Amino acid sequence: MERTAKLATRTRRRRLGATARREERELYLFIGPWLIGLVLFYAGPIVASASMSLTEWPMLSSPRWVGFANYAEILGSDALFGKVLFNTVYYVVFSVPLGIILALVIAILLNQKVRWLPLFRTIYYIPSLVTGVSVAVVWSWLLNPQFGLVNHFLGLIGIKGPNWLFDTKTAMPAMIIMSLWAVGGSMVIYLAGLQGIPQHLYEAAEIDGAGSWARFRNVTLPMMTPTIFFNLIMGIIGSFQTFTQFFIMTNGGPANATLTYVLYLYRVAFEFFRMGYACGLAWMLFLVILVMTLMQFWGARYWVYYEAPAARR
Amino acid sequence: MGLSEDQYLQKERTMKSRMNRRELLRWLGLGSGALVLAACQPKIVEVEKVVKETVIVKEEVEKVVKETVVIEAKAAPREAVKLRCTHSWPADQWPRQVEFDDVFNQEHPYISITGENIPWADYVPKLTALAAAGTLPDLVYCQYAWAQQFILNRMILSAQPYLDNDPEFWDIDDWVPPGLVSYRWQGEQYLLPYNEGPTNLIYFNKRIFDEAGVPYPHSNKDWTLDDLWDYAKELTTGEGADKIWGYDGLPSIWIINGDILKTWDAEFWNDPCETKSRMHEENAIKCLEWWLELYKSGVAPTPAEAETVPGNPFAYGVVAMVKGASWDNRWIKPNLKDPYDVAHAPVGPNGKRSSTSAGSAYGITKDTKHPDDAWVYLRAYNTTEGQIFLFSSIGIDPARWSAWPAYFETDATPDSAEVVMEVMEQYAEHNLLDSPHGREISTAAQPLLDRLWLEELTPREVCTQITEACAPIMKKNEEWAALAGHVC
How far apart are CA A133 and CA A125, in angstroms? Predict the structure, then answer.
C-alpha cells in the first residue's frame, strides 16, 4: 500500500511537472498573438507618442527635439486649449449622467415581466450597434431646424424648436441629446446587474412594508452602485475621447462651439502638421482623464456599495 | 480497498492511451491552423496560368517595343520601372485619370505608372503617415494650402533642374502666373500646377431671372455691389418649400482677401508675407458691415436653410445667384436642370473687380527611386496635350494658356466660359494663405467670422478680434517670409 502510494505520488509529481511545463508553453503560445498585438498596437505607440510629444514633428520630415516646449505652449500660449477643454468637459458633465440615468430607467423597465420583452430589449439595444458616421448623418437630419423631426414634434406641442446645430448656444446641447442614442450598450449592463440582485432582499423589504419607491431607493439603487460606478468610469473615459460625431456633424462649429479636445488634436496633427504637439495634447488628455478617474475612485467609497466587506475600499 | 501496483500501472497506461480533453483541443487547434495555412497557399494552377498569360503579354509588349525601337531608331534597353502616384479625384474624374495612365503606359513601355485615388478626408492623414514611414509614392497630388509645408520639409524634390533643361516645356509665358506662386520656393519651382481658376464668379439661374423680369448680370458689364443687392432683393420670393433666394455665397476666410476685401481697398493678411493683419482697419469693417446687412436682409439662405435642400441650393434651383469658383461648374452642370450662365463679379466701391485665383499641383517626392522617370510622367501630365486631355476638355480650367482653347470648345463649361479666362487675364491674383502657419490663421479667424453671420458679434468686434487672434500666429511667418524673399 505504502509502495503504491509512493509510486502514485512520484508519478503524479512527474506528470504535474511535465504538464505544468506544457501548459506554460501552451499559455504563451495562445496569448502570444494578443501579447504581440498589445506591444505593437498599444504599448509601443504609447511609448512612441510620449517621446514624440517632446519633439516638433511635422511627419513630413524628421522630428526635432524641443523638450517640454510643447507642454509649455499647451498650458501657456495655446488660445484654444482652454476652449476645447471646456467644450469637452461641458459635453462629459451632461452626457454621462444623462446617459446613466436613461440607461438605468430603461433597464428597470425592461426588467419587468411583460409580453414581448425580448423584442423591446432588442429594439432598445439596436441603436448602439449603428456605426458613428451613420448616426451622425441621421442626427444631422433629425436636428435640422426647418425640416427635422425633432423640431417637428416640438412644434406639435407648441414649442418653436431652436436652430440646434447652427446656433452656438444649442449646438452642444444637441450633441449631448444625440449621445443618448447609444444608451443601449450600458442598458444591457444594467439589465445584467438588475438580474443579479437577490430576490430575498425585495421580499424582505416588502415584508417590512416598503413601497416600490422605497424598494428602488433602498434595495435596487444600492445594489446597482457597482454597475453604475463601472459605467460612470467608462462613460467619462469614452466621452472625453468623442470624435466621429463632432467631426461629421459640426466639424467643431459653429464658431468653435463644438470643437472638442480630440477633434482639435486631430486638426493640430493633420491640418497644422504638428504631430509632436498633438502627442503632447494626447498626454495632457490622458492626465485629465486619469485625474478624473482617480477622483471617481476616491469618491466611490462614499456611495458605491459592495456586498462582500473585503470588496469595499 | 485500493488498487494493486499492476492495476494502478494498467490504469495509467489506459489513461495515457486515451486522449484527454486538453490534448483533443490541442490537436484540433493545430489541425485548424494547418488547414488555414494550406488554404492560404497560392494555387499552383492559377500561378501557372498567370505565368503563361504573363508570357503571352510579355511577347506582345516585346513586339510593340521592337516596333517602337525600329521607329525610334533603336533606343538603348533599360530596366522597367514602376511608379506610384497618389490622387484625390472625385469619382467622376477618376476614369479620366485611369485613361491617361493607360495611354502613358502604352507610350512608355519601360515605365509603368499606378495611380491610387484616396478620398479627400483621408488624403493628408495617409500622406503624412507614408511620409513618416519613408514610403511616399513617387508623385503626389498637392493642394496650395499644403505646398509650402511639403517644400520646407523637403518632402518634394525641386523640378527646376528638369525645367532648366527643357525650355520647350518650360515656356514661362505659357503658364497662368498665379498658378505657380504656391509651388515655388526661393526661385525654384517644386511642383507643377495642373489647373488654375478664379474663385469670384457669379453663377446665375436664367429661369429665375426670366420669371422675375430682372436683367442678367452679364448684360451689365459694370454692375456694382449695389446692383447685386437690388437684384438679390427682387429675386427673393416665396416662403417655405417655394422659397427662392436671390443670392448665396457668404465670404469665407480663405478667399476673403482677394474676393471681398480688395474691392474695398482692404485686406486681412499682407499678401504675400502673411505677417500682419489689417482686418481691424476701417475699410475692412465697412466691408463686413455691408455684407452683414445683405445677409440680414434675407436674400441669402442661412446655413440651416441651406441644409434643407439636397446638395447645394443653387444646383437645386432655389437660388438665383451664387458666388463660386470656376471648378464649381463641375457639380452645377450635371445637377442644375435650369439654364444658367456665369458673369463677372460686381464692381466694388473702389471701382474695381478682384478675384482670388487657386489651383492644385503634382510633385515628385523625396522617396522616389526613379526621379528621372517620375519627371517623364510629371512632364507628360503637364504638357499642353496632357492638360487638354485631363482638364480643359472636360471643363476644368488648365494651368497653361495654350490649353485654354479646348476649355471653350467643350460642352462641360458655362455658355459664357470666356468670362473665366477674362478674369484670369484681367484681375485675378493669387492672394491665398500659403505660409506654413496659413492653416492656423484661417482656423483662428473663421469661427469669428461665423459669429458675425450668427449676429453674436458686430463687424467691428469681429474685425478687431480677428486681428488679436491672428497677430501672434502671423508673427511666426516672419522668418518664412524673409527666407522666401518677400518684401513686407
Answer: 18
DSSP letter for A114, please. Answer: -
> Cβ(B237)–Cβ(B435) under 8 Å?
no
User: Which of B123, B130, B153 is best to mutate for the A interface (most A CBs within 10 A)?
Assistant: B153
Cell numbers found for residue B485: 524673399
Contact B303 A144 (CB under 8 A): no
Residue in chain A nearest B469 by alpha carbon: A79
**Which homologous superfamily does the CATH classification assign to the domain defined by B198-358+416-484?**
Periplasmic binding protein-like II (3.40.190.10)
Q: For residue B155, what are the contacts with CB-CB under 8 A and spacing of at least 6?
A: A60, A61, B131, B136, B365, B366
Looking at the domain that runs over B83-197+359-409, which CATH code has it been given? 3.40.190.10
Please identify which residue in the block is written with the cell numbers 520601372.
Answer: B81
Structure confidence by residue, pLDDT tens digits, B204-245: 999 999 999 999 997 777 899 999 999 999 999 998 888 999
Compute CA distances B451 → A253, B459, B466, B476, whole Å: 10, 10, 11, 26
ipTM comes to 0.79
Share of chain B above pLDDT 70, in %: 89
Residues belonging to chain B with any Cβ–Cβ distance to chain A shorter than 8 Å: 2-5, 8, 12, 26, 124-125, 128-129, 131-132, 146, 149-150, 153-155, 302-305, 307-308, 436, 439-440, 443-444, 447-448, 450-451, 454, 456, 469, 472
Tell me what pLDDT residue B69 has: 44
Q: Residue B97 burial by CB count (10 A; 0-12/13-18/19+): exposed, middle or buried?
A: middle
Domain boundaries, chain B: 45-75, 83-197+359-409, 198-358+416-484
Q: Looking at B35-39, B183-187, B243-247, B426-430, which range is the least confident one?
A: B35-39
Nearest CA in chain A to B151: A60
Parallel/antiparallel/unpaired status of strands B201-205 and B81-87: unpaired
Pick from A191, A76, A196: nearest CA to A125: A191
SS3 content of chain A, % helix, strand, coil (to 5): 75, 0, 25
Domains B83-197+359-409 and B198-358+416-484 share a fold: yes
The pTM (predicted TM-score) of the whole model is 0.82
Q: Is A149 exposed, middle or buried (0-12, 13-18, 19+ CB in 10 A)?
A: exposed
